[in-house]
Every structure is written in C-alpha cells, then in structure tokens.
Amino acid sequence: MHKPIILQQIIDSSDGVLSIAESEDKIPFQIKRVYYIYDFKTSKSKRGFHAHKKLQQVIFAISGFFTLTLDNGKEKTNHLLNNPNKGILIDKKIWHTMENFSDNCIILVIASDTFNESDYIRNYTDFINFIKKP
Ligand code: TYD
Q1: 109 CA to centre of ligand 1 in angstroms
Q2: Contacts of 132 (CB under 8 A, 6+ apart)
Q3: Active site residue 2
Q4: Rounded distance between C-alpha atoms, residue 8 and residue 134, angstroms
Q5: Is it the case that residue 130 has pLDDT exceeding 90?
Q6: Cβ of 22: how many Cβ atoms within 10 Å?
Q7: Residue 68's pLDDT band (boundaries 50, 70, 90)?
Q8: Does the beta carbon of 120 lie inside 6 Å of ligand 1?
Q9: 99 lines ligand 1 (CB under 6 A)
Q10: What single string gives the DSSP state of each residue in 8-72?
Q11: Residue 111 in 3-state DSSP?
Q12: For residue 30, what are the CA distances in angstroms to 6, 20, 55, 61, 112?
C-alpha cells in the first residue's frame, strides 16, 4: 500500500537544489493536474477523509512537514512527510487523511486526472463497500 516516490536531487553549483517529477518516470502515471495546499492556520487541522475511485496522486511536503495516514480497508499506515524530494503514492481506493501540519507546511499534489467530485468517496462505509466490489 505504501509506495515511496523519491525524486532525484540535483545540487546546483549556483546554490539551491532541484527535484524533478516527470510523467511515467518517477511519477507512475500521466500528470493531468498539480495543486498545492498551504496557509494552515493550526496544526490541529485535519484534511482528506476520502478515497478516490480511479484517481492516483503523489503527495509531497515541499516545505515543512505533516503526517499522512493511508488505509486500504484492512490496515492503516502513518507516514511523516518532511522532505521536499520524498513523496508517497496515494493510489486509487485508498482512504487517506493528513494532519499535524507544521506552520510552514506546503503540500504539493500531483494527480493523474482533472478534478471530478464524482470520483470521490467521502463516506467511510461507502469506501468499505466500494472496495469489496470485484
Ligand atoms: P479536497 O480534495 O476534499 O481536499 P483535502 O483532500 O485536502 O481535504 O478538496 C477541498 C475542496 O476543494 C473541495 O470542496 C473540492 C475543492 N477542490 C477543487 O475544486 N479542485 C481540486 O482540484 C481539488 C483538489 C479540490
């Protein structure tokens, strides 16, 4: 369930580090959308609480840190994301939550498709029923 995505770090001679995410290379799908989440007012916020029917996403903390929980309906795993080049694949049919955001946290999400609310499963019981289907 837990697939780390480690981007290369190119240490630039003029200062700074570059990490590159390319479709079907480090990112295991064609990239259709990128969004980022920032400006957290409190570390007590919690986000996510949904799964996707088809969408695949790779998530990074490109600044600061947060905790990601993945749940495939059978087991849950927790992951501290705290490095701009270390992401995690959130595959389809994985219930996920994000919490414990640092002040300066910026979350980058790379997604396999455009936004579509009908791809979301926002109720946990519906999620369990959905993953039981063949
Ligand atoms: P949501 O995916 O539920 O956020 P999170 O997983 O971080 O808790 O999205 C929050 C709101 O933003 C929801 O009303 C849908 C909207 N939204 C868009 O309009 N476009 C997008 O690409 C995304 C990701 C969300």
Answers
A1: 11
A2: none
A3: no
A4: 37
A5: yes
A6: 9
A7: very high
A8: no
A9: no
A10: --EE-TTS-EE----BTTTBSS---EEEEE---S-TT-EEEEEEESS--EEEEEEES-EEEEEE-
A11: strand
A12: 17, 15, 11, 21, 6
Residue 48 CB–ligand 1 contact under 6 Å: yes
Sole residue written with tokens 């295991």: 28
> From the CA of 133, how far away is ligand 1's center (Å)?
26
User: Could you tell me the distance, in angstroms and rounded to a whole number, from the CA of residue 57 to the centre of ligand 1?
Assistant: 13
> What does pLDDT average to over the chain?
96
Q: 38 CB less than 6 Å from ligand 1?
A: no
- Written as six digits, the tokens of 17 are 């580090």
Ligand 1 pocket member 119 (CB < 6 A): no
pLDDT at 24 over 90: no
Task: Please list, residue by residue across 25-38, b when 16 or more beta carbons sit within 10 angstroms of its beta carbon and e when fewer do.
Answer: ebbebeeeeeeeee
Q: How far is the CA of 14 from the centre of ligand 1 (A)?
A: 37
pTM for this predicted structure = 0.96
- Output the residue whose Cα is nearest ligand 1's atom 9: 48
Q: What is the distance between the alpha carbons of residues 69 and 1, in angstroms, rounded to a whole number?
A: 11
Q: Give the model confidence (pLDDT) of 43-65 as tens digits.
A: 899 999 999 999 999 999 999 99
